[in-house]
Amino acid sequence: MIYLDNSATTKIDPRVIKKMLPYLKEEYGNPTSKHYTLAQNAESAVEVARSNLSTLLNCENDEIIFTSGASESNNFILKGIADYYQDQGNHIITSSVEHKSILKCCNYLEKKGYKITYLPVNKKGQIEIDTLKKAITDQTILISLLWGNNELGSLNPVKKLATVAKENDILFHTDATQILGKIDINAQDIPFDFLSCSAHKIHGPKGVGAAFIKTDDIGLRHELTPLIHGGNQEDGLRAGTLSVHNIVGLGEAARIAFNEMSDYIPKIKRLENLFKEKIKNKISNLYFNGDQTSKIPGIINMTIPIQGVNNKLIITNLEEELAISDGSACSITEPSHVLKAIGLNRNEITSTFRISLSKFNTPEEIEQAIDLLIKTINEFKI
Ligand code: PMP
């Protein structure tokens, strides 16, 4: 089985499993109990993980809040800001190509009386600076925009977008789930106030992620209402006994990403170029969607305009040999809202595929995957 669906999730790095195992066995202490060694060991493991993630983001340790993943972080930040800042305005700006955990949250907030602007994107799936500027009103309390698109791979000009937010004194959140460990994140350089990310996209475990909440120059944290009320874990912002083994896994995955990005990113780029070159040689009218320059390494979104190609049918028939996708794993039943937003018609959407590579893929797998895909397309054209 060749796994080329790394935007959906990634294979866990064996070093991550090794680091996690003791916290599922002998080191089972509760990190907030504190008064005996078992608890202190758990607490220091959590703090090592926090420090590893803050190194990857170039931020302070106390700017990291552990969550169950990026969906929770997105919900926490959007609902938390909408609630906390409701007296200052009721308008939130996002985009039409966000992950469902942002879009559905915004739909929910609309029902509660908030006004949401869903910015349109250009043909490559990116937000234009002027489009953002025009959408800002004196009621805008938050701008939440995806850093890199999970279906297309296109990157948004996040530094410029966040700067527009700052110039207008508006809080800025970015969903960085797909770019973590792929693109440098520098919280000192880019003026975002909030960021969401997840461990399972960087060869860590599922069910753990983080929300970054910026502290200002004098150490004051941006405030927001917790999503989960209860104990005082995570400074009272996210209650519940910490999932120590998962947090340790996230920390180890972040440590590996920080140390090894400069090795595996060029490798992933080489594999991406190999894939694109080889498949284009075999299907000459195939085209790639999204920005092919300003992009997340390893995400390839392509339309195969051959009569009768049905992506779902082909992917299902490839199931035991090759794992690829027709879009996001989180919206399997509906046609992709991202492809619609960049102007693809129904026919084009049903003949579009997403291939997403990781550091564990090899050139041999790329060659075999292309042969398998073409063989299956020829067999299952309708
Ligand atoms: N945002 C983006 C851009 C994603 O790609 C995903 C995962 N597909 C999420 C959020 C949700 O992440 P999680 O699975 O950790 O909830």
Count, helices: 11
Number of strands: 12
Distance between the termini: 25 Å
The low-confidence runs, each spanning 5 or more residues with pLDDT under 50, are none
Rg is 21 Å
* Mean of residue pLDDT values: 96
Strand content: 5-15%
Strand order of the largest sheet: 2-8-7-6-5-3-4
In one word, what is the shape? globular
Sheet/helix structural class: alpha/beta
The topology string of helices and strands comes to: EHHEHEHEHEHEEEHEEHEHHEH
CATH topology of the largest domain: Aspartate Aminotransferase, domain 2
Which CATH architecture of the largest domain is right?
3-Layer(aba) Sandwich
CATH class of the largest domain: Alpha Beta
Main sheet characteristics: 7 strands, mixed
State the CATH superfamily name of the largest domain: Type I PLP-dependent aspartate aminotransferase-like (Major domain)
Whole-number tally of structural domains: 2
The gist of it:
With 382 residues, this protein is an alpha/beta fold. The protein contains eleven helices and twelve strands.
Task: Describe the structure using short key phrases.
Aspartate Aminotransferase, domain 1; binds 4'-deoxy-4'-aminopyridoxal-5'-phosphate; 382 residues; alpha/beta; Aspartate Aminotransferase, domain 2; 3-stranded antiparallel sheet; 11 helices; 7-stranded mixed sheet; 14% strand; 2 domains; 38% helix; globular; single chain
